[in-house]
Amino acid sequence: MVPAELRYAKSHEWAKMDGGTVTVGITAFAAEQLGDVVFLELPAVGESVEAGTPFGVVESVKAAVDLNSPVSGEVIEVNDDLTEDMELLGKDSYGSAWMIKVKTAGDADFQSLMSADEYEKFLEAEEKH
Amino acid sequence: MSELHRTVLYDRHVAGGGKIVDFAGWEMPLQYAGGIVAEHLATRKGAGLFDVSHMGRFIFGGEGATRFLQHVLTNNAEALETGQAQYTMIPNADGGAVDDAYLYRFVEDEYLLVVNAANRQKDWDHFSEHLAEFDDVKMTDESEEIAMISLQGPLAGAILSGVIDSGALPEPTRNELGAVVINGVEVRLARTGYTGEPVCFELFVESQAAGKIWDLLINRGAEPVGLGARDTLRLEAALPLYGHELGLEPDGKEIAVFSCPLARFAVSFSPLKGDFIGKDALAKQHEAFMKILSEDYSLIANLPRRIVPVAVVGKGIARPPAGAFVGDKHVGFVTSGTVVPYWQVEGEGLSSRITDQKAMRSICMVMLDCDLREGDRIEIEIRGKQVEAVIVPFHLRSEAPPYARAILHDHALAIHEDRTRQAGPTKARDLLEKAIENTIWRQAECINLIPSEQTFSPMARMLSIMDPAFRYAEHKPLKAFYEANVFYYQGTDFIEAVETSLEAELRKFLGCAEVETRAVSGQMANAVVFSAMVDYINRTDRKSPPRRIARVMNNHIIKGGHLSSQPMGAMRDFIAHDPKTEKPAITNFPVLPENPYKIDVPACRELLERYRPELIIFGKSVVLHPEPVAEIRAFADEMGIDTVIMYDMAHVLGLVGPHFQEPFADGADIVTGSTHKTFFGTQRGIVASNYAETDERYNLAEAIRRRTFPGSVSNHHLGTMVGLLMATYEMNHFKDEYQPKVIANAKAFAAALKRCGMDVAGDADVGYTQTHQVVVNVGYSRATEIARKLEDNNIIVNYQAAPNEEGFTAAGAIRMGVSEMTRFGMGEGDFETVAQLIADVVNNDKPVKAEVKSFRGGFTDLKFRFGGEEFDGIMEKLHGLV
After folding, report:
1. Are B383 and A57 inside 8 Å of each other by CB?
2. Do B37 and A38 touch (CB under 8 A)?
3. N or C: which end of chain A has fewer CB within 10 A?
């Protein structure tokens, strides 16, 4: 079960809206697929991100995967604790393993993301492939 | 898409939580629940279990099999003895690789070749194409019939031993093969693997039986490992993977075989091979490769790039095919790379400890221009950024078993420099005080049980530092003077007389015709003999380059042989290479399965007949029994083998006589030895021989003189020669009492250790030992720690690798000798006390330092020496002269 209050991107990032600030992370499914995460590169505070384009990269022993921003805006906070302890990604994907907080202009990007229900159906379809 | 294959272990992978992926048409576990990092680390500290049944297994039989394999493989298949394996390439005509493979010869008339899963069909077709050119070769694909399991890591030996019904593990060196029975089924074992682990096994078993064996190994603690960690482990070991380091580059260009770091071990140009596929192209690469190794880049066009290990210094992970740069110049590309975990290490050197803390490092292999060298900095392009990296010699070392040890590019040993800036006199006083402290500790407070050591008598010690310790006395007999010795320096009458007396005393002791006394160590004495052998066998032709000793038979170093009789030691420059094996022409004595410290005499007959060694060397540094000199001499005489029998008696020189062994009476030609183990000192070496002047072999005795001086020494520590003369007087005077006492003490010591619950090596029927030595097994790879713990308790012993162990860092035995403490007056009852003290430390972890110190306090007066009032005045006079 994925948290109902979050929105989801097809590239397996989650987003949480809180006023004009969107918190971004990757889903438990993504973390499990990656396996042991060994490298994480996140943007600096003040950089701007654009919906659907990479804001960072996460690497496991096996592969490097781009992190796509679900929304556009300016990075106002980065989770430095996560870069120190990347195992959090597998343990607490929707909580302490958040990656960045983005100040957005509106909520159009956010609204276009999948709901929890839609994401679960999406995952089911993915697994059948 | 065609149906995916599954190995016989597929169900177990699924049941074990394996994440199944399609790998080269096979449904294989990428990882299990723990993940790649955990599986990698489990292999490095425990034992990893791999299903490698997806690989191809081809069997080659028939009279023509060897010829065929010589043609289609790069290595020298003919060099493989039954019971050995070798890494090899399957070359194409252009000097590239069709595949890489491992060739196993489990039985005399059949070879097993293991190839990559992805290339199985391609390899089969390639071989089939060439099969028509050869008669009587039978090739079958038995990949389905035989399953293959790999067990790798420091605990692999213990785990495997635990499931064996009968049979023994293969000899503890890489590429050795054997067979055992597990769960009622024959399993073939190879000491091979793809992880860099020094303790490594691959198991071959009929497919139906594999599942049960897999379960047994897991029950014993083996950790299943998937393809993910198999890849990180092999990357850390810098082992090539076809498709990355072999085959084609990403742009479709052929990778030259010699670009691959292992090629030099996998390609042979032995004349025995004759022509083989790709030989000309490979020979060109090889020529360039050899030049590049010596930093000559004149032929670099024939081998422009090679694959080297590279550590990423900056932030990022180098993944193939990332570009490599020096400045703006593109110098190559990454062939494999990722982040791998390693166990952090505490401390330095032998006492370093592998902790429970893991860390990660970013490493890769890079195809780089050949003119770049170890230590050069390069940059790797990672997502548009240039990241700093450095060419390293290796990422991992395997020569300190039982662990494969991660080598970090930025780790350096701590440098202990003198920061105190003390003045000379202060340092001098400090040194003197420390020497006093050390002497009191070793002479009055420790139980000294190193079998190679001996305390010399006060007289021998004093004489060693008197004049002529500061002089020169080179000399040589001249035929022009009827062999009279000619000395090159004046003032040498005294030392000349000493040397003459020393030779006479030693001749008497050994019962032989000649003794050369100028070598300054036992190892030098052996080197003198080897050099003299080369001199002697070339005596009729001084114009051609001298040939080396054609074949030597000796004790293997892991069966107690000493390095002074090994190609890695003193023999290196004197032994010929066997054209067939392309290795030093050494044959080792076979040993008894039930007592590896004893030569299997009947089994020597066939080896002697087959190899007809020019030199046979007895003698060991782990020696519990007399050597079968008389038996081997009888075999050699019976077969008419023209051989020299040498007995390196370093350890047992002081025991020569009726209580142990009389080498010349048994038929030895030459005896060498150091003079300070069971003998009474001082630290020197001797070479004794027993040829009459009329004997043709007397030429060898003369060569020994020449290869001592001027071959090995000019001056030779004259002081210790005077000391040795005194020690030899003592030995000749006291040996009838000393020798039986040493042997009785050793037997009593061994029996007492056994009663204390310790695992004493050797033949129980003879009281475990017939020498001064006692060997105790304390548990695989535990001996270094135990020896250190004993030292902390003032008991000084050697840690020692037992014959079934991979190396001294994995040592599971301690070696002890009773000669020094016997000389300090200990008797059989006292050695029972020593045994109890040792057991207290080893078995009960009880501190005994104070007890040891006080016990040793009762044994500080050296026996078996001249003394008493009549010598007091003269000894005082000697002291006064220093």
Report:
1. yes
2. yes
3. C
**Mind listing the pLDDT tens digit for each residue in B66-90?**
999 999 999 999 999 999 999 999 9
**Residues whose CB is less than 8 angstroms from the CB of residue B472 and which lie 6 or more positions away in sequence, other chains included:** B488, B489, B492, B714, B715, B718
Q: What share of chain A is helix, strand, coil (3-state, %, to 5)?
A: 25, 35, 40
ipTM entry: 0.87
A-B CB pairs within 8 A amount to: 36
Out of B244, B265, B292, a domain closes at B292
Q: How confident is residue B1, by pLDDT bands cut at 50, 70 and 90?
A: very low
Q: Which residue in the set A39, A57, A61 is minimally distant from B37, CB to CB?
A: A61
Model confidence at B653: pLDDT above 50: yes
- In contact, B777 and B796? CB cutoff 8 Å: no
Please tell me the distance from the alpha carbon of residue B32 to that of residue B15, in angstroms, as a whole number. 10
Residue B320's pLDDT band (cuts 50, 70, 90):
very high
Helix (H) or strand (E) holding B375: none
Question: Domain containing B84 — which CATH number?
Answer: 3.30.70.1400
Reduced 3-state DSSP string for B92-140 = CCCCCEEEEEEEEEEECCEEEEEECHHHHHHHHHHHHHHHCCCCCCEEE
- How many of the other CB atoms lie within 10 Å of CB of A23? 18
**B228 to A61: CB separation less than 8 angstroms, yes or no:** yes
When divided into structural domains, chain B yields a total of 2
Domain presence at residue B416: no
Q: Which of B684, B702, B728 is the last residue in one of the domains?
A: B728
Percent of residues, chain B, with pLDDT higher than 70 = 100
Chain B residue with Cα closest to A57? B383
Instruction: Kindly indicate the confidence band of residue A105, based on its pLDDT and cuts at 50, 70 and 90.
Output: confident
CA distances from B314 to A80, B365, B387 (A): 19, 16, 5
Domain A7-109, CATH: 2.40.50.100
Q: So where are chain A's domains?
A: 7-109
Residues 6+ apart with CB under 8 A from B139: B58, B59, B60, B127, B128, B131
Examine the pLDDT at B144 and tell me if it is beyond 50: yes
Whole domain around residue B86: which residue ranges? 56-142+252-292
Is the pLDDT at B412 greater than 90? The verdict is no
Q: Identify the closest residue of chain B to A56 by CA–CA distance.
A: B383
Q: How far is CA B156 from CA B152, B205, B851, in A?
A: 6, 17, 39
Percent of chain B surpassing pLDDT 90? 97
Question: Residues A30-41: pLDDT tens digits?
Answer: 999 898 899 999
Query: Does residue B6 sit within a domain?
Result: no
pLDDT, mean of residues B265-284: 95
Nearest to A111 by CA among A28, A25, A15: A15
Query: Taking a C-beta distance cutoff of 8 angstroms, is the pair B82, B135 a contact?
Result: no
Question: Which residues of chain B approach chain A closer than 8 Å at the C-beta?
Answer: 30-31, 35-38, 228, 232, 315-317, 319, 338-340, 360, 362, 383
Q: How many angstroms away from the CA of B234 is the closest CA of chain A?
A: 13
Q: Is the pLDDT of residue B586 over 70?
A: yes
Residue B203 in any domain: the answer is: no
| Tokens 């393809």 sit on residue | B227
**What's the whole-number mean pLDDT along residues B719-739?**
98
Provide Rg for chain B, Cα atoms: 31
Cβ atoms of B105 and B188 closer than 8 Å: no
Chain B residues whose CB is inside 8 A of the A36 CB are: 35-38
Contact B228 A39 (CB under 8 A): no
* CA of A35 vs chain B CAs: smallest distance (Å): 6
Which CATH number characterizes residue B723's domain? 3.40.640.10
Least confident of B384-398, B401-415, B723-737, B748-762: B401-415
Do A61 and B383 lie within an 8 Å CB cutoff?
no
**Structure confidence at residue B665 (pLDDT):** 97
